[in-house]
Amino acid sequence: MGQAAHMESYLLLQDMCDIVACSDLDLKRAQLVADRNGIPKAFGSFQDMLQHVECDGIVASQGFDRHHEWIQDLLPYGKPIFMEKPLAASTAAGRELLDMVKKANGRVFIGYHKRSDPASVYAKDVIQDWSESGDKGSMTHIRVTMPPGDWMQGPHRFTRNVGPQTRLDVEPPSDPDTGHGPEYKRHYLAFVNYYIHQVNLIRYLCGQDYHVTHASANGRLLIAEMEDQTSICLEMATHHTPLDWQETAEVFFENAWVRLRLPAPLVEFHAGTVEVSDHNHTRQQLICSEFPREHAMLNQARNFLKFVSGDYDDFTTMEDAYKDLMIAEEYLSALGVSPSA
Predict the structure, then answer these.
(1) Do 212 and 329 sit in the same domain of this protein?
(2) pTM for the structure as a whole
(3) Which residues of the chain have pLDDT under 70?
């Protein structure tokens, strides 16, 4: 993902930034990546890189099970940091990360790229306007769906990566000991890996916290409730779409609704779409909006650069990302998975 999703985006934004160095535990691979992309310097560790290179921000695209391990080494450099979602591989690790960043007064941007899709931004603005004005009545229900599908939609972007695809002999992640059993960890990691984007998107679109109230026994349905008692339905893996991607978020008001359709996560130069329907006693209106050919990963990179400059504040904070992990815990509790299992 570091090459296929993130680096490619920054290479397209040369009017805003220069990539001054890259690092990888495999120095040979780092050098191949640097040579291919015109990056001046390559290093075998981020510590070595940051000791020898001046930079304004750090993109640290790592597995989320290692966030707790390396963030403490990055914070002393005092640079804005981009890190992947979810925040951590356990809620305990997420809490420690949150406290660590607060203590260091660090600036961290969490990679929930769906927030950066132009369609998501537009849908959020419509929902916020309706909520504040009350013109469409009260918000009543939220429905989010994400069946498994072709998440790249087209040519395999990872084939553009360079360097040996070998696994290095490194120490296992050093997350805090949670005392959770292997079955609980399996369920937890599956949920935060596949559905944490949707957990976060619900809060982003509607601007409220929420709590899980029910989970179906087959693990395909999460029911929750917002602070204002708006009901939420997250439908997971209801079916499989091998040649398609069918992710939607629908927000209903008493007299109107918004439907957001998002493209596959790695699709390029294609934004989501938004349908808005409202009605009164004499008419019903459906407006379908499409957006410029930009993609969420590219816009996320652009937004991180603005964040580095202090010009962007609509990002997922550490606190928000920690709330997402709490939802995962609530879901497993509703599912009846024992922490000791």
Answers:
(1) yes
(2) 0.93
(3) 154-177
